[in-house]
Amino acid sequence: MSFHIDPDTRKARTLTADFYTDPAYFELSKERIFARSWQFAGKADDLGDLTPMTVLPGVLDEPVVIVKTSEWITCLSNVCTHRGKILVEGPCSADLIRCRYHGRRFALDGRMISMPEFDDVEDFPSEADNLTKLPFAEVGGFLFTSVAPLTGFSEWIDGVEHLFDAAPTSGLAMTARREYEINAHWALYCENYLEGFHIPYVHKGLNAVVDYGSYSTDLFGHTSVQTAYGVSKERAAPAQVEARYLFIFPNLMFNFYPWGISVNVVRPITHEKTSVEFLTYVRDEDLLEKGAGADLHAVEMEDEAVVESVQKGIRSRFYDRGRYSPSREQGTHHFHRLIAGFMNDK
After folding, report:
1. 300 and 204 housed in the same domain
2. Among 116, 234, 243, 345, which has the highest number of CB atoms less than 10 A from its own CB?
3. Which of 116-120, 169-173, 316-320 has the lowest mean pLDDT?
């Protein structure tokens, strides 16, 4: 099936229901969407010298190790090039990487430096014996990697780098980590995030502090930014920014609040189940209970209830696809066009 989303929101129709309900599309999206996108790899300040992790567990399942020295930081494959054993099993400090299966050793930049009992092997070592260095990038102290990116990271986030500059990240400290499991397709969760249209109907508390009339969405190549202004108590007073919601396609959310940044990582589990990790990075604890970022758990519960209801509804034989509000659902339309482009591109 070919996916098509009309570029004109006045004419466009949404993705068809089978994109969310057919397991075959879910499997296809792993390689066509997630393998070619950039994924969150943590914050540099939170990592030790050698930090093993998995790129998008359950979807890409790629074992990597983040190597941090006093001079540089990089991301390497965490699989031995001899027989495929995982090299670094837990966070540690070391001046080299050694496989505990047959003793192959690697420098911290991934070069293979020695291997026992290989004296008579021809054409050894070769480039294939080194650890693969994954594409890797950093912005504002936050790290990103990809297994097969469609573009470089600077191009991927072109147009939104200033958000990290405008919100200094050097003083941020991670104060909380929470994981939610939602009975819904990953894209439904992202779609809900990408529009403020539902705020007056779903989020009564949030609607009380956000001026719905001035809520805006700006679109870029693989990202979008929603800006929520506060309700001005004085008619002549300028509206203050309550939050900026940055979405990095296909599954990353950076929420900029006066108190700091909340990072949400959306991880597909199945075509009808999704995990969302909330990472809270705080700069000013005195502002935590104020404004749009005051009760993120309550907002999350409201969002989950709606998204899970949609997951049930799209299975109906009477629903196939919907339409967009040109003034309120630009972000969702943009998201659907990106999905269609990636799914169609073999």
Report:
1. yes
2. 243
3. 169-173
Nearest to 87 by CA among 116, 53, 57: 53
Residues 28 and 46 in one domain: no
Q: How far apart are CA 104 and CA 110, in angstroms?
A: 12
pLDDT band at 88 (very low <50, low <70, confident <90, very high): very high
Give me Rg for the CA atoms of the chain: 22
What percent of the chain lies above the pLDDT cut of 70? 97
What pLDDT does residue 48 have?
Answer: 94
Question: Would strands 273-282 and 62-68 be described as parallel, antiparallel, or unpaired?
Answer: unpaired
In contact, 243 and 231? CB cutoff 8 Å: no
Q: Are residues 16 and 76 in the same domain?
A: no
Contact 80, 69 (CB under 8 A): no
**Is the previous residue joined to 57 through a cis bond, with omega within 30 degrees of 0?**
no
Centroid of chain to Cα 285: 25
Q: Are residues 17 and 98 in the same domain?
A: no
**250: preceding bond cis by omega (within 30 degrees):** yes
DSSP 137-153: EEETTEEEE-SS-SS-H
User: Both 175 and 324 in a single domain?
Assistant: yes
- Do you know the residue count of the chain? 346
Spell out the residues 6+ positions from residue 226 whose beta carbon is closer than 8 angstroms to its own.
194, 195, 196, 215, 216, 217, 218, 244, 245, 247, 331
Residue 222's identity, in one-letter code, is H
Are 217 and 310 within one domain? yes
